[in-house]
Amino acid sequence: MSVVDSDTGRFTLISGRGEPSGTAGQEEGLADVLTLQRRGFHPSSREAEEALYQDTLAEYCWARDVAGLAATTLNQLAQPVIEICSFHGVLPWELSSRMLDQYFAGPGKRAHSTVRKKITSIDQYFAFLEQRYAGEILRRFGAAVESPVDAFNRPRHRGDFGLRIPPSRAEMKAFFGSWRQELETARKYPVAVRNYVMAKTAYLSGARATELCLVRLGDLHWDSGQWGRFLVRGKGARGSGPREREAFMFAEGRALLWWYVENVRGLFPDNCLDPYAPLFPSERLPTALGADLPIAPAMCADTFRRSLRRASLAHLKGTVTVLFPHLLRHACATHNYEDGMPLWDVQVLLGHEWPTTTVGYLATAKGDPERASLESSRRAVRRLSGEV
User: Fold this and answer.
1) Which residues does the UniProt record annotate as the domain Tyr recombinase (predicted)?
2) Is the pTM of this model over 0.85?
């Protein structure tokens, strides 16, 4: 017969009086109570513990892969766990909070954002370990699984990303004008034009560098909307993986991309008529695969960052002298908002799910509440007076 104690929550088995207890020295007529929470400790080898450790790492990555995390994120999940366990020469369930503090306060000390990211990854791995393997580890090795991240060493997000201040619209116009004048004398004309067009497209559309690198020629939809749009594979929110969305060309971007596709894209050594060919290709074909490869690989985001940095140091004048791709995204949001674009439209332009994320891009926008109030009053007067 089974009985559950409502106070302690323990599940017990009780044998009847007439059943043999099988235990020497037990008094006749008393119930034989066996608590199932009693720990069954079985000695095991160190090799078995290490094998289980490797299995948990693999299963953790599989689980996060099923959850939809990107491949680049999966490669970084287990690395902090391996790093700290290798340093101390212990298994994860042998880690203590003191060991974590010693490592990240000493040899593992990095920038605050890096330490925060690593400790968060370790804490998430231990949440998985407690959920799926805590019972097995306790039974086999007699060790309790407990995260070394506690209330005292858990890092806080201090906002150490800083304030991104983009150049003004006049400075951006002068920057792209000066850069374009240099294109005719560039040693590698197609590469120089590609870098210029990619930078200005990022500024006009607000697309990320990684998104632009993945745009294919077949993703350009010239007839969508008023001036055309192009498909980008954006960053998914909360680990949901890449999401497709439409980015906007606008009038200036349409003319620029049309000129680039018609006059420059065919100068690269691949088939520019293939719809799967990248819009911004690399200038080199992989030699290991042969020279007859029909499609060139896409341009790397790091290559774009370096080219934008060199161009900004040479042509950008003003208080901001160095540009990077994400600052172009901030400049796009700020300048469109200052020109009167509503917050909701700026959110759609950047592909944000939450308007609070968009507000963070407008920290340096020069708003004028008094002018907005006057314009709102004038609109109300016209509406009440029947004016169109």
Assistant:
1) 165-374
2) no
pLDDT in tens, 253-272: 999 999 999 999 999 988 88
Give the whole-angstrom CA distance, residue 185 versus residue 265: 18
- Torsion from C-alpha of 102, 103, 109, 115, nearest 10 degrees: -110
Return the minimum-mean-pLDDT range out of 170-184, 201-215, 346-360: 346-360
215 burial (CB, 10 Å; 0-12 / 13-18 / 19+) is buried
Q: Helices (DSSP H) in the chain: which residue ranges?
A: 46-66, 71-77, 79-88, 97-105, 112-132, 134-141, 169-182, 189-205, 209-213, 250-263, 301-315, 325-338, 343-350, 355-360, 369-385
- Residue with the bigger pLDDT between 248 and 163: it is 248
The one-letter amino acid code at 322 reads V
Please state, in angstroms and rounded to a whole number, the distance separating the CA atoms of residues 257 and 274.
17
Which one, of 181, 203, 206, 202, lies nearest residue 192 by Cα? 181
Q: Is the pLDDT of residue 143 over 70?
A: yes
End-to-end CA distance of the chain: 84
**In sequence order, what are the beta bridge partners of 243?**
234
Give the Å distances, CA to CA, from 65 to 74, 282, 340, 368.
7, 30, 42, 47
pLDDT tops 80 at residue 54? yes
